[in-house]
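Help wanted!
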Amino acid sequence: MRLLILVASLALSFPSPLLAADMSDATAECLECHSSLAPGMVAAWQNSRHARVSPTEAWKKTELERRISTKSVDKKLAANVVGCAECHTLNPEKHSDNFEHNGYQVHIVVTPEDCATCHPQEVKQYGENLMSHAYGNLQDNSLYQDLVRTINGVQFLEEGQIRITPPSPGTNADSCLSCHGTRVEVKGFDSRDTEMGEMEFPVLSGWPNAGVGRINPDGSKGSCSSCHTWHRFSIEMARKPHTCSQCHKGPDVPIYKIYQVSKHGNIYSSIGHHWDFEAVPWTVGKDFTAPTCATCHVSLIVNGDGEVVAERTHQMNNRLPWRIFGLIYSHAHPKSPDTSVIKNNAGLPLPTDLNGEPASNYLIDNNEQQERRKVLQQVCLSCHTQQWVDGHWIRFENTMKTANEMTLTATKLMQQAWDSGVAKGLAQDSSIFDEAIEKKWMENWLFFGNSVRMSSAMLGTDYGVFDNGRWYMAKNIQEIHDWLKTMLAVTGETSQDAK
Amino acid sequence: MRLLILVASLALSFPSPLLAADMSDATAECLECHSSLAPGMVAAWQNSRHARVSPTEAWKKTELERRISTKSVDKKLAANVVGCAECHTLNPEKHSDNFEHNGYQVHIVVTPEDCATCHPQEVKQYGENLMSHAYGNLQDNSLYQDLVRTINGVQFLEEGQIRITPPSPGTNADSCLSCHGTRVEVKGFDSRDTEMGEMEFPVLSGWPNAGVGRINPDGSKGSCSSCHTWHRFSIEMARKPHTCSQCHKGPDVPIYKIYQVSKHGNIYSSIGHHWDFEAVPWTVGKDFTAPTCATCHVSLIVNGDGEVVAERTHQMNNRLPWRIFGLIYSHAHPKSPDTSVIKNNAGLPLPTDLNGEPASNYLIDNNEQQERRKVLQQVCLSCHTQQWVDGHWIRFENTMKTANEMTLTATKLMQQAWDSGVAKGLAQDSSIFDEAIEKKWMENWLFFGNSVRMSSAMLGTDYGVFDNGRWYMAKNIQEIHDWLKTMLAVTGETSQDAK
Amino acid sequence: MRLLILVASLALSFPSPLLAADMSDATAECLECHSSLAPGMVAAWQNSRHARVSPTEAWKKTELERRISTKSVDKKLAANVVGCAECHTLNPEKHSDNFEHNGYQVHIVVTPEDCATCHPQEVKQYGENLMSHAYGNLQDNSLYQDLVRTINGVQFLEEGQIRITPPSPGTNADSCLSCHGTRVEVKGFDSRDTEMGEMEFPVLSGWPNAGVGRINPDGSKGSCSSCHTWHRFSIEMARKPHTCSQCHKGPDVPIYKIYQVSKHGNIYSSIGHHWDFEAVPWTVGKDFTAPTCATCHVSLIVNGDGEVVAERTHQMNNRLPWRIFGLIYSHAHPKSPDTSVIKNNAGLPLPTDLNGEPASNYLIDNNEQQERRKVLQQVCLSCHTQQWVDGHWIRFENTMKTANEMTLTATKLMQQAWDSGVAKGLAQDSSIFDEAIEKKWMENWLFFGNSVRMSSAMLGTDYGVFDNGRWYMAKNIQEIHDWLKTMLAVTGETSQDAK
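Answered by r_m:
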């Protein structure tokens, strides 16, 4: 009882229903220490739905309103709210980070497989999402590893040349893997003095991390807390664009910046404070009047009559016909979320050839694209007419095509540089990413091409023109051309085309 | 009755007054289908003032509180709320997009001329606003068309040279014309299967679009929904800076970014949630304590005694003595909103010469500038002393001058490049925008000069130093100089000055 | 009485307690004119705590809740709310801007020394903050002055070379000194026609300004209103990150941008509207669940048991072991807030040598660093485990090290350029900041190195990779290397290393 009062006193002052179910004795015991050791962590949970609702109660909702997808929950979990102990003691046999702690076998890293206890459908879907494979898709692709090396490695001078020290795991964890996810492994156990006396804890590599494709100590992939931030697990937060912006804001994938200058983003910023971000299902018109990222890509959307506009999906790509993040061109979406298996016609681990030809065997076909487009457009049609949507889509596909054509021109110039030897490429057993001119070429597709395409997709066209888009894409080709002319002149080399 | 209930159920849950006036039978009929076909569109309207107030009621307000400016409304419109049918059936004789739809003659594109039925003064003022001419000001200026071509056209290689395929209408609609407005024309009629059976619709070119200078099927210019987003038409939204940011955020016109780092923007972001963005008139101190874009440039502002600080204006430039968007230098504001008529002394369609001389015949004179400055400064003086305002203004005009001087230096270097032939300019019948070095020169005034001036005007000086301002302007000149030296050395050309 | 009613009518409509104490007769007299002359200014104050609470009442709070730090207040100030007259008439003997105004001796510029009447501890602490010395730290450092000249000076051509006209005081006030603070001096007195008739006012140089290191007419340094914006002095606003962003958003110090893409910033943006930004002390978990800038760097933080997690500090650097704003490398924090006294081993006014060696005599030692780290980490430990915090810190210090190593490589290349004469440096009595290649080198540490370090410190790693971080740092070195090779080839010069 003392504990309940203590915890309640930590709760934020905005309206929260009374505790409808009790917490377990085990969780109460956790809170006895952790309420004062890490009050912010406990308060986040206390303000969460997990702290107020038991799985049994969650099940009483109608199917559309229900937030859990399991058909049955273990009896010993069913009646209590979802507290510390409920999650941090699940599946002990699978968790290499499991350890004895005050008489309990607990683990630090709660994983999608743990969350699947109540949310199996979401975890299954997420397993089909590219993001759940973000670690391997980066780490098991030799070309991307080469890219990581040339970005993160420490450059030094040796005999007048620039050499690169490969980046340490710590450097990668502090950069790429912060979003992609680290590999979290138990490296031993360590004894530590705490306020509660000497205690032993597992020592984790790659920790902390909440990347979308984290490799967990139980072997599972991903981290639900990437979007459902620990320990609040707020659906409001997951539905707001700021969550996506954590990883999708840089020039390579500027979707948050584009959303901000779009009409949709403007509506969200201007009048979104009137909306209900907690409602399940999410009713277009009633709960919100313009989409956030989640609306189009994830959420269960219904119309005012309660009819489903779009099913909830944590796979996401089942609403995505195209992959407009160009590598190096945009292309039909990959069939498998594991993109490390892809080989293009030239044998490179890329979804397109350097000349733009897609690696079609690994990509969805036109029928599947039509199907996905239809699902996505159902969301658009909640507010727009068919003519509106068709008009938008025609422009978008035209822009994909022209952006690809621009990248092809830049790549032809780069190919001349490689062929003539003024830059070193694959034929010289060299990285195609490590020279200054190669980085300039990469910006053509990785920064500017992506910006142009994403701006078109999301109606943030101001961004796609001057902010990091067509202006720079146009200038980029001219600069590569100028560089090539000058270098050929200086070195006396000739290429097939450049004069 | 059934309909009223259905629609009410779509309304957002924040407080909204009861329906004070009835909707027309025609609008009720529209909603019968569209409530379920496009619930988001209907809900936006349902949450709008248009859904609650009839023109007659709008007229009962005091003059300062009144939101309509017509002296009289057609009897058949006066008593009902402003619903679908009220707007989408206006002026059928003028609308080439008019078509028969379920027994009504309707049109898709509601235009300023339609809005003028109730808001004639605002539409008239907007006709004097540069923005209403944004389509022609871009499309009818040969120099700007050349610029559009070199940004949006697809570049390809031919005999070692870069060639440009002129951009398609779809490409331009997806980029420049997204803000400037497209030309929306009826290209025929098309029959389509709908949930309501086979129906015929006009096929529109340039659609969708809500650009500020859109050329409409009734021949009118502009789109009120650029700022008063359809179908909510929210004054809260129009007054918030996010609306302006849709078009004014890129490096060419970074006013939203500058506002964000200004003291004014900070106040808005930090405590603006306490303000009343719906009040008409807008009382400084009571409804808000720092300006948004609309405060200085558009809104009817009164002080606590109800005295007018600034009259409402949709012309906007009557509060603007200077045009600080440099083309290529800043200058007194153009006399006419149609800038395509301007010719500088050299005969180019620019408001200044390449050496900075203004095309004075086409620009307002000093007296008019004084008048406009006075109107604008009345807003400043609501919170600041005269000495404060004067001190700010002196700095601002000094910064305009020095930024112009920097552009002059960059232009002199560019002129040497053209004169010596290392770049091709007007004398060689060539575009002055299509070479890499020319794009670099353009960034001097279009990106950096504009950033410096706008930062000074709006007190976002952090932006004007490092973000895209003085740092880059200084570096830009040095880089052009280095490039010129190198090119002259390589080609053996000489110029008058560069050595 | 009339006045009280007038003022109340200006107050915003959100809940505000009744006026608990009376305003002084002098303040009432001020308001008699200024309520209508500058209603926004008066309304800001009216909505402030200053307008509602007297020093005596402020003292009645418990020590942790207390917002004033003086032990005693002059009797004539103690009983009234803190109004216009209370601040603008303080310390008349020290204020050179003091003047007779309607029978009162008033001054325009309220200074930290004035604020110290009630807030002596905060003012004393702020005097130890680098920011209070921001004017002199820039103006009294010959190297930085050289930098200011090359950024702000107007460049012109003379005999084919670029020359620089030194920037005017107005230009510097409109750029660097906007944040750093101007020197505000009385340049005379001027008579002006006002609505109240002819009046005399002091003429101030460097006005307006609210920079953090402003030199005031009473000789004091700083401006409390930089963060506690006049005349609201809102703690809500000072605690929100937008306030810091006014000066900390550019590529040189992009902390706001990094915060925005961090998990912390995401939580603030998504659910911060639920928090209490007014509470003193600030209770972690109860009042907020993720930090803003102020949480880690300034505020008095307590846990749910009311135990102090971090003492309030306006010195700030007592929570900062490192200075990660690299000049030109990151280093232990300076001992004195007056950094103009620092000389590195080479005698330059920089905290590190060009080869990275710290100017240790002027920097805090390891013990002091440990102490400060401990204080800072107490805030982290409110929500995170020790292992989490340690893991984060190890990465952060590794990133500081690698970013420094990258800058060393860039600097070695630059040194070769200086040694070989293809660029002019200190040995040639030339600025090391004025050539294009030197500006490129500066971007390595001033823009990219700082971005990488700050991203690591604040968990905004997406920013630190592509947005302005590792990508650019890597490319920057390669570009300098390419430039050097080309220049040496063109000029026939040789250097020790570059071939």
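OP: Thanks! One thing I noticed: Residues 1-19, 495-499 of chain A have pLDDT under 50 and may be disordered.
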